[in-house]
Design brief:
The protein has 153 residues and is an alpha+beta fold. The chain has helices at 19-26, 28-35, 43-57, 86-102, 133-139, 141-145, 147-152; strands at 61-67, 77-82, 109-111, 118-122, 126-131. Strands 1-2-5-4-3 form a five-stranded mixed β-sheet. Strand 4 (118-122) and strand 5 form a beta hairpin. Helix 3 runs antiparallel to helix 4. The longest helix has 17 residues, at 86-102. The termini are far apart.
Length: 153
């Protein structure tokens, strides 16, 4: 008597390790592509818009927003802007904190607002850097985290 034929089962992945290790071995782009959703505006997009609008209202120069999803673990977005004077940078940081609170973000941390060349604003998944022109050129965060990073990988 002949046994009925079984349907062929898909071949199991031969990569050793847990699913997390397999995802890490596949790289951030493979994981990020599986996690991407429909292009509807998200809370992160709304917060980024509030940040960019606030900086532009305060006459910030060279405002750049970088998408770091899959590249960094400390944030998903980074916004970089230049202010010409300590007073302008301090005002930008204060206005930004107020507008983020109005948008429902309760925990905003600011470092360096006491008159320095670089103010960092931690808004959770978005990190904002406010620089004087000389400091921005010296640290060159756009080069470190920008599109050039993708080409090197």
């Amino acid at each position: 008597m002949r046994k009925p034929a079984r349907p062929a089962l898909p071949q199991a992945d031969k990569t050793p390790g847990t699913p997390r290790k397999k995802a890490t071995a596949a790289g951030p782009r493979a994981v990020a592509s599986r996690l991407r959703r429909a292009p509807e505006p998200s809370r992160l997009d709304e917060l980024q818009r509030v940040i960019v609008d606030s900086l532009e209202d305060d006459k910030a120069e060279n405002v750049v927003a970088l998408d770091l999803e899959g590249k960094a673990t400390f944030c998903d977005r980074m916004v970089i802007a230049t202010g010409l004077a300590d007073r302008q940078i301090t005002a930008m940081a204060q206005h930004l904190e107020e507008k983020l609170h109005e948008s429902g973000l309760k925990r905003v941390q600011i470092e360096g607002a006491g008159g320095s060349d670089w103010v960092l604003i931690d808004a959770g998944d978005i990190v904002v850097h406010l620089f004087k022109p000389e400091a921005r050129a010296m640290y060159a965060l756009e080069k470190m985290w920008g599109a050039d990073l993708d080409e090197a990988v």
